[in-house]
Amino acid sequence: MSSSTSSTTWREALVRSLRRPPWSREAWRDTRLIAAGIPLALPVWLGVVAPSLLMPVLAIVLTCTRWITRAQRGRLHALLGVEVPPAGPGPVLSVGRLRIGVSWRQLAYHLLVGPSLALGALGVVYLWGAGLVLSTLYAWVWLLPMEAGLRTELAGLDVLFTVVGVVLLVVTPWLATLTAWLEVRSARALLGPNRAEALERRVEEITESRAGLVDAVDAERRRIERDLHDGAQQRLTSLAMNLGLARRTLKDCPPDAMQVIVAAHEEAQAAIDELRDLVRGLHPAVLEDRGLDAALSGVAARAPLPVRLDVDLSERIAPTVEAVAYFTVSEALTNVAKHARASAVDVSARTSGGKLRLVVTDDGVGGADATRGTGLTGLRQRAASVDGTLSVLSPLGGPTTITVELPCVL
């Protein structure tokens, strides 16, 4: 039995137990698991046996539900390696002056299912003991001193009892396995989260994982940008300076050699420009040094068409969100220049209510469609990477308005 036990049926658990020896290590492990649950159910059985103690027992179970649940989950983890995730607190109940958040499923386990399983566990433990005693009865009859007449009277019964004891020792491990399977199934169903809670927790985990991945990608882009800026770009700049110096000073150089120097100098300059554009595309230094306002100003200044920029940032924006906003505006302006046939673009960036709102409006021909490869799909995916949204309004004849909303803090 393992953490996958909860996904198996009782028939599969029984077949698995039948395929292994009755006195295997797994049988003893299952027995220890179910036996360890007996003490946790004793208070409830005490209330059943002594009705006068029923109300105090119920009060104790209610007030200690959280700790009893933790003990049951710890028992399954320590003895079987099964993880039962904690469930939500459930509705708030008042017990005396205490207000306790409990789940009805937890109460059902501790008041009904747990004691019933403990009773079954007690029966399994009893069968183990009876099997051990009865299977050795034949040996005790002949080893212990007794009168000959009494030994003759027990001559038939001792063999029968011994056979019964052996049968019990063979059957009891299977009963222990089935009881342990019921323990795991009921604990996961009643002590763990329900389907809605499990889905909500999974969504939270995926959201946190995605946010961590986005941050990691942004940090890696920053590192690559720094390495290129401080390494390859500096070396190319030094090479271009040396070639330019040679171009100006070596006047008596043969024409063929000078032509090679001039070509190398121009290639170095072109490589620097391309590398500068690449570095800016990875992560512009101005975004980290001076913030989103200055970075958007640089994008607007480099755009191939007039851009009217309106920026009002009253709240601090997370660095990852700043990068997404910068590249979103940059790609939107590139799309406008390629497809919109516009003469001017308005870009607005404002913060309000914990959100950054970007609006890019052009006076082009309109008709933008994300399904026709205009780049809007990439913009929407970029915004969604930080739980942002993107909407497009682009009637035929224009204008086209792209609205992006991003959270200021991840």
UniProtKB/TrEMBL annotation:
Domain Histidine kinase/HSP90-like ATPase: 320-410
EC number: 2.7.13.3
Pfam families, sorted: HATPase_c, HisKA_3, Sensor
Keyword entries, A-Z: ATP-binding, Kinase, Membrane, Nucleotide-binding, Phosphoprotein, Transferase, Transmembrane, Transmembrane helix, Two-component regulatory system
Lineage: superkingdom: Bacteria
TM stretches of this protein: 44-68, 107-140, 160-182
SUPFAM superfamilies: ATPase domain of HSP90 chaperone/DNA topoisomerase II/histidine kinase (SSF55874)
GO CC terms: membrane
Cross-referenced InterPro entries: HATPase_C_sf, HATPase_dom, Put_sensor_dom, Sensor_HK_TwoCompSys, Sig_transdc_His_kin_sub3_dim/P
Keyword Acyltransferase (UniProt): no
Reaction catalysis annotation: ATP + protein L-histidine = ADP + protein N-phospho-L-histidine
Molecular function (Gene Ontology), one example: phosphorelay sensor kinase activity
Protein name: histidine kinase
